[in-house]
Design goal:
Blueprint: E1 2-5, H1 9-21, E2 25-28, E3 42-45, H2 56-64, E4 69-72, E5 85-88, H3 91-109, E6 113-117, H4 124-128, E7 136-142, H5 146-154, E8 162-164, H6 171-180, E9 185-189, H7 197-207, E10 210-214, E11 223-225, H8 228-238
């Protein structure tokens, strides 16, 4: 049986393809060793790059048991050379950049700074609790799932500032949303073109919006593929 990780568009596509092939699989969002009632023959990781730390213990568990761990790794986004883009190698660095940019904007404009967050609900609480949050309005875009919307509300995000939509989004849709919510800063992760990073950044640049970009974590080398078809070909050839 295959264990499939992730809530991404790619994970949903893989689910449909596995169903069509009649291959037994189970999708999971979190992992503990006790969750495996049946030892999997393969782990397919189609989760976002931001989940790499969360699933690191699972990769180690698989190595110890010689269970293949196949990662769908999207190519990195080619980032335009712009003074409006502030790259961060870690989440902690991104928070420091946000603090600097929010403080500078608030001092210059004397008003609340709107941060449009597209990094999901994971680690969102650290922004809400940050000192600079008192000068900021957070607009959060998450998947249209009740538990995610509720999580945002539970940590203090107003429902009017929760955008529950499922992408991928075109540059035009991103521009419309950024303009509607009056975004001053875009906070996003490099999830590759498949994750819409390029369209978000290009939309922000055209509107003159600053972008704090969390670059992907360098993962341990292992079995990787770059698209869904390569992943399915690997499964066909090896299982």
């Amino acid at each position: 049986m295959i264990m499939l990780l992730g809530e991404t568009a790619a994970a949903r596509e893989i689910s449909e393809c596995l169903k069509d092939r009649g291959i037994e699989f189970k999708r999971i969002q979190t992992w503990t060793e006790k969750a495996f009632l049946k030892v999997p023959t393969l782990i397919v990781d189609a989760s976002p790059p931001s989940s790499s730390i969360k699933f690191a213990p699972l990769r180690q568990w698989c190595e110890q048991r010689c269970i293949p761990y196949l990662r769908l790794e999207r190519p990195e986004t080619v980032i335009p050379d712009s003074l409006l883009i502030y790259p961060a190698c870690t989440w902690e660095e991104a928070l420091l950049l946000l603090e600097q940019r929010v403080s500078a904007m608030h001092e210059a404009k004397g008003c609340i700074v709107t941060i449009f967050v597209t990094t999901g609900s994971y680690q969102l609480e650290s922004i809400v609790k940050a000192a600079f949050a008192r000068y900021a309005r957070l607009v959060v875009r998450v998947l249209p799932e009740g538990r995610l919307v509720q999580k945002c509300k539970d940590i203090g995000i107003s429902p009017r500032n929760i955008v529950a939509m499922q992408g991928q989004f075109s540059k035009e849709i991103n521009k419309a949303l950024f303009k509607f919510y009056g975004a001053d800063i875009l906070l996003t992760r490099d999830s590759g073109s498949a994750g819409g990073t390029d369209t978000k950044i290009s939309a922000a640049l055209e509107l003159g919006i600053e972008t704090v970009l969390v670059k992907r974590t360098k993962m341990k080398a292992g079995l990787t593929v770059n698209n869904v078809q390569e992943l399915l070909d690997w499964i066909d050839d090896n299982l």
